[in-house]
Amino acid sequence: MFQGQKLARSKSARTFKGPVAWLFGRQLIAGLKWIGMYAFFGDKLDSRDWMRPDVITRHGEAPEEEAFWFDYLADSGDGQCATYNIAYLCQHDLWLPNENPSPDIAQESKTVSLIGDAGNVFKLPRGEFLFVGGDTSYHIADYATLADRFQQPFNWAYEDIFGPETRPETRRPIYGIPGNHDYYDALDGFNRQFLKPFNQEHEQDTEGAGPQLSLKGFERLQEASYVALKLPYGWWFWGLDTQAGKIDRRQAAFFLSLCNPEVSEATAENKAARKAPDKLIVATPEPTTQFGRWAREEEAIVETFKKLELAPSFLKSNAGNLPPSQCRLDISGDIHHYARYWGKGAVDKSDHTRTNYASVVAGGGGAFLHPSHTDVEEVAENQLYPPRTVSHRLMTRRLLMPWNIFQGGYIWLAGGLMALIIYFAAVIPESSWSIFKLMPNGLRPLQNDGDSLLSRIQGALAIEWGNSTSEYYWDLIYALLLLILLSISALRTKRFFEAAMDRDRKAWAWAHYRFIGFHLALFAPMGVFMYGWNPSGHPHSFLASVLVLLFLLASLVSLVISRRYDNLLFERAKSHQIIKGDYTPLWILMLFAAVSACHGLWHYGRYPVAVVFADILTILTLLLTLGGLIFFAVVAGGSLHERAGKLWFAALGCWHAVLQISVPVLLVIYSSWITIFIVVSSVILATLLTAWMMTRDSLMNENRLQQEKLGRQLLIIWLLVGVSAMLIASWGGEAVEVTWSRLAAAFLVGGILSCVWFGWYLVVALAFNGHNNEAGGGARTQTYRHFIRFKLTPKKLTGYVIGIDQPVESFPKDKEMPKFRLVDVFTIGL
Fold first, then answer.
1. Selection from 660, 679, 587, 644 nearest residue 769 by Cα
2. Which of 105, 288, 435, 753 has the fewest CB atoms within 10 Å, measured from its CB?
3. Where do the TM regions start and end (predicted)?
4. pLDDT(536) > 90
């Protein structure tokens, strides 16, 4: 099968930027504040409230018996070279050997040509418009990123095809819908990129300024973030803006008005009068079917389709069926590979074909590749690009290449800091050293050289041991229970009030009283610990720091609950009057937040600030590493799994965390410099050897059974490598004196091994259908990009999926032009 290599290079004066760094990269860190704002306020800052959409009818007619062509892509604006290739093909006529071609399956088979000749006689003309299906640029589709990673590659492609001057006859309309990465910028960048400018395209206004983010080969016409296009022969194209899978009331009313123009919004409840167009294309930001998994009834996308009176054919109960009098294509990006479910193809991998319905995932517009071998196998795909085995080999090789993980962001920095902090905590501060005792006191700085900087740091973190008592473990039990129950309350606040939200005052008041009573019951024991609890001694310094942190966290969670309750009041105020008593929980929660923080600091913060700070830093590092990696494994890795699968991923995350914490710290404490070098080198060598061994041509990955077999083999090798590294690091060695060079070694070894272990974790998790998004972001490959050129006739819609195995950096006119892969040809119709 075909396999990805490096970019095909040619003499080009341009310098293409690679894919953005996803693993805590600089761009991602810079955009965290915007992502955070969207997470907290995205439901209130809804730009769609101010939009006034209109039906675009300019494509509604076509010459009799002549096909209508248009293009679709999604998930663009990442690596500039891949986006440039997509942009070039979108703005160019394409040619095939004949009118009824078969997809290119073999490695050497590439039949899509940029030039028509005797061997390429069937023309796929440039589309009459281009539709962009979301996530226009990464990480955040703001003005600067769109200009750099979307506008520039598209304009480069235009100049290479048509020349530097903009020619009006070469422009085509461009339409789009936003994805989550567009929403991170509150649709500001999306507005500038897709909405119709107030002045003419490519013309300057009286102040000498032209439209922002203008593309030389395109013009913008739409007035909202969602769009309805009337196409020839009775076809319609609906582009939905479903933020987080949900559709707003105004948008729903707009599309429902198209179901039957005689039905006004006032009579919208008359469902019998509604009828969606018989021939319809629906573009959504997120797929209706993905990873071989049936959509669930409770998912937001199902509710959206039902609101629009569209049959959710992608549910298991419907099995891809539509009434014979209708045909529909559901198409989206978000997942950065190609997959087709149902429809009728020239070649189909599955016998689950439908002549009038297809669900297509086509997120290959330039963003990094998502592994295509993640497959739950509930519903079989009819076509996939790249194939499973190719995806497995490519991802395994790239993820088990530590240098690639290093380049993908600041994983190495996080790993280095984690190892440095834990090593420092284990050997320097008196409080945490007395807990771990991994090193004899005689090898610590204060015992060897009292005048050194390290000795003075240790002296500053020394404490006077008093009469410590174990009675404070009762405080610890209460603090842990308090934090756990408050966290549960924060997660369930919305669900708790959901049943009473739209009911009468009595039902609301009863839910209100139970909510207040529950939290007062949680807070009441704190009074006992403040005034009625007098242990005979002092808590251990590390325990005291733990208690300070727990009560500070309880204070923070209380504020989160108050914020969530405030959101509920905001929603209820839309339909009910809010009275003064409704604000009581807010006052109680904010009062408790203040009391909890003060109680923790006043009652347990009796040790020096430097000691408490060092302990809290150690605790947070351990929690974020151990707890964070387990949580990450369960939530992100186990997202496609039920409870048993999530427990498996929790165990996998725990093993990953143990390796990240133990190996670098044990090496630096107990090993000589030679041993450190040998262990680190051997781990890297074993990783690279595994990457070669587990991607041989003889190893197949054509189904889930074969994939999990490879996963078990990878897991066994990882366990052997990890256990061996831990045993060698700690076996029979004596502790080594603490020096600055050892502190530096902790950072260096932690940084190197964090890239190794994270790559191992992703490749094993991926084999068990976990972390598809993170694995793709870690691999950061621009290969296997694609877009779809559609042909529309009175009875049929045909999609030609054009694949780019290897992006090229230029298309020289004086040399043989490259050819591209025909990935799929599929049809739906009446």
1. 644
2. 105
3. 20-41, 403-428, 472-491, 512-533, 539-562, 583-604, 610-635, 647-667, 673-693, 714-732, 744-768
4. no
The average confidence (pLDDT) of the chain is: 87
Which residues, 6+ apart, have CB-to-CB distance to 400 below 8 Å?
687, 688, 690, 691, 759, 760, 763
% pLDDT > 70, the chain: 90
Q: What are the residue boundaries of the structural domains of the chain, listed by start? A: 26-59+69-99+112-204+211-231+281-293+321-386+784-821, 420-463+610-782, 469-607
Sequence letter at residue 211 = P
List all residues 6 or more positions away from 113 whose beta carbon is below 8 Å from its beta carbon.
Answer: 94, 95, 96, 119, 120, 817, 819
Q: How far is 663 from 670, CA to CA, in rounded Å? A: 11
> What percent of the chain has a predicted confidence (pLDDT) above 90?
56
DSSP class per residue in 45-108: --GGGG----EE-TTS---TT--EEEEEE-S-SSSHHHHHHHHHHHTS-EEESSSSPPP--STT
pLDDT at 204: 55
The correct answer on CATH 3.30.380 for the domain covering 26-59+69-99+112-204+211-231+281-293+321-386+784-821 is no
Residue 796 CB-density burial (10 A; 0-12 exposed, 13-18 middle, 19+ buried): middle
Among 529, 522, 528, smallest CA distance to 585 is for 522
- Say if residue 414's pLDDT is above 80: yes
Q: Which residues have a Cβ under 8 Å from the Cβ of 43 and sit 6 or more positions away?
A: 567
Contact yes or no for 428/669 (Cβ under 8 A)? no
Contact 330, 360 (CB under 8 A): yes
Start-to-end C-alpha separation, the chain:
35
- Residue 43: the pLDDT is 55
